[in-house]
């Protein structure tokens, strides 16, 4: 099987999301990007910004101090902190729930440098050293001041969250490579113990006690600006009703566009299958760009996480995919990764600790998928670990769907997949020699993971780097002001927190590890404190 990026993009049938919004894409006006180029998908489209006084009257209008679009971790933290200062905040949320992605993410590596909680555990962080580690990890391609601001404030925000009852706990897993391992990290409460729900509920109560309100079922449509171009409100739709929310500033906490497959296809380097669970359709970014916000250099950055089985039409195989992915990509059992052409292309041991790195590498080099090679013992282990899910019938159905391939020999496996048999057989033999020698002179795979394959039959499962969401939509200042396309300027009255702006601290990839939730809470607090000090 041979596929190029061009014919893949042309012929792939994207599936599995069902949340893309063509109408949403059609509603964005063409704006200059941060590099001065016209935006690609939005040229000659209607604007998503209206000037105050030129609009048709709304069905209903709410007046307040600040409007916050989105009630995920960033939005609710920002709203509660504003309410603590006495601000009247209107929270505009498209779903009927609070917490957003914060209710479903793992958040297992929450950065909490020098919080009282970690200091109580005897872990005093060297923030300058951690900062330098981070810069090295992203090759210095990030906003250094925003990063410094985050690292210097994340600890106190954790203590603030604990004041609301947020029950952090120390990680117990072994240290991981990079960024000081787990030494400076803590974990969020388990997502199924109701602690997050209770904590976010208390924050909403603080908002309402200060005269604000939570408006559910409302999707943002347009930013409202005054004659000077300052953002002073938000127009939203609630069913067939149009509602205007007016204030002195608007905070975008709408979570990116991870559920909008059209935007992923347009803006990301390969058409990855979005798995965003909370309907983050990109309306915040589209409105901000229409208002003159800069498009960052790393627009299209993704949170690429664990690989999932997928077919050649990029449709994720249903049922038991996580089990198959985890067992077959385990490098401790000697797994070999090959490209769409049947050749190794990276060191598989990265998947021991951060699967996101391998996924991000595939995205960067236009690899729409990779194949994990396993022997019969791996399949037997899979059945033993999850017999209720992984049956012979289940595996047969995966073969029928073009996700799993089998061959008695390496040559037969190559023929089943569509690779050149001689090429793959040579690659398989070369890998066996690396295992025998205990050394990988090309990709430098750790010797402990150079485990030889057992007897056949052999299997190949097609896997895709799959994004949990996007995180490079908008650039912000250390005060969380949205940067304008004109260098040195900001979009007056507009702020962005959480996923919308986390790409500011990253390169062209994002390694996950729960950092987005910590950034969301911290950036929300920082935006609130800036607005309270300078706007209200």
From TrEMBL:
Domain of life of the source: Bacteria
UniProt cofactor(s): FAD
Signal sequence coordinates: 1-22
FAD-dependent oxidoreductase 2 FAD-binding domain mapped to chain residues: 65-506
Keyword annotations: FAD, Flavoprotein, Oxidoreductase, Signal
InterPro entries: FAD-dep_OxRdtase_2_FAD-bd, FAD-oxidoreductase_2, FAD/NAD-bd_sf, Succ_DH/fumarate_Rdtase_cat_sf, TAT_signal, TAT_signal_bac_arc
Gene3D superfamilies: FAD/NAD(P)-binding domain, Succinate dehydrogenase/fumarate reductase flavoprotein, catalytic domain
Protein name: FAD-binding protein
Organism whose genome encodes this protein: Raoultibacter massiliensis
Origin organism lineage: Bacteria, Bacillati, Actinomycetota, Coriobacteriia, Eggerthellales
């Amino acid at each position: 099987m041979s596929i190029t990026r061009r014919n893949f993009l042309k012929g792939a049938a994207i599936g599995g999301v069902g949340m893309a919004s063509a109408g949403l894409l059609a509603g964005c006006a063409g704006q200059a990007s941060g590099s001065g180029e016209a935006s690609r998908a939005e040229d000659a489209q209607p604007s998503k910004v209206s000037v105050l006084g030129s609009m048709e009257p709304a069905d209903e209008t709410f007046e307040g101090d600040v409007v916050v679009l989105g009630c995920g971790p960033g939005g609710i933290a920002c709203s509660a902190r504003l309410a603590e200062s006495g601000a009247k905040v209107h929270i505009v949320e498209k779903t009927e729930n609070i917490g957003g992605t914060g209710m479903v993410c793992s958040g297992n590596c929450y950065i909490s440098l020098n919080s009282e909680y970690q200091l109580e555990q005897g872990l005093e962080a060297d923030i300058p050293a951690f900062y330098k580690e981070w810069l090295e990890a992203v090759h210095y391609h990030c906003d250094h001041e925003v990063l410094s601001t985050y690292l210097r404030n994340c600890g106190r925000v954790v203590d603030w969250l604990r004041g609301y009852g947020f029950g952090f706990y120390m990680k117990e897993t072994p240290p991981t490579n990079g960024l000081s391992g787990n030494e400076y990290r803590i974990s969020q409460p388990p997502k199924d113990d109701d602690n997050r729900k209770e904590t976010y509920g208390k924050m909403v109560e603080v908002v309402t006690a200060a005269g604000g309100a939570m408006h559910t079922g409302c999707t943002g449509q347009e930013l409202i600006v005054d004659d000077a171009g300052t953002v002073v409100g938000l127009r939203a739709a609630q069913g067939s009703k149009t509602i205007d929310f007016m204030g002195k500033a608007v905070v975008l906490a709408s979570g990116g566009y991870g559920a909008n497959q059209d935007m992923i296809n347009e803006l990301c380097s390969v058409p990855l299958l979005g798995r965003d669970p909370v309907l983050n359709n990109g309306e915040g970014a589209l409105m901000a760009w229409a208002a003159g916000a800069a498009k960052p250099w790393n627009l299209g950055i993704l949170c690429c996480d664990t690989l999932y089985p997928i077919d050649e039409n990029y449709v994720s195989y249903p049922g038991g995919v996580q089990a198959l992915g985890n067992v077959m990509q385990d490098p401790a059992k000697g797994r070999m990764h090959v490209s769409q052409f049947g050749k190794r292309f990276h060191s598989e041991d990265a998947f021991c600790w951060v699967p996101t790195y391998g996924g991000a590498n595939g995205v960067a080099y236009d690899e729409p998928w990779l194949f994990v090679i396993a022997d019969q013992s791996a399949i037997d282990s899979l059945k033993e670990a999850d017999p209720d899910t992984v049956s012979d019938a289940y595996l047969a159905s995966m073969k029928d769907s073009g996700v799993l391939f089998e061959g008695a020999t390496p040559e037969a496996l190559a023929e089943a997949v569509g690779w050149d048999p001689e090429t793959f057989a040579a690659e398989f033999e070369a890998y066996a020699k690396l295992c025998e020698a205990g050394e990988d002179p090309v990709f430098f795979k750790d010797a402990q993971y150079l485990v030889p394959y057992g007897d056949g039959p052999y299997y190949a499962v097609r896997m895709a780097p799959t994004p949990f969401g996007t995180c490079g939509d908008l650039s912000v200042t250390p005060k969380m002001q949205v940067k304008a396309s004109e260098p040195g300027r900001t979009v007056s009255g507009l702020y962005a927190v959480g996923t919308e702006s986390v790409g500011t601290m990253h390169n062209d990839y994002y390694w996950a590890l729960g950092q987005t939730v910590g950034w969301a809470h911290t950036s929300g607090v920082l935006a609130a404190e800036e607005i309270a000090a300078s706007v209200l």
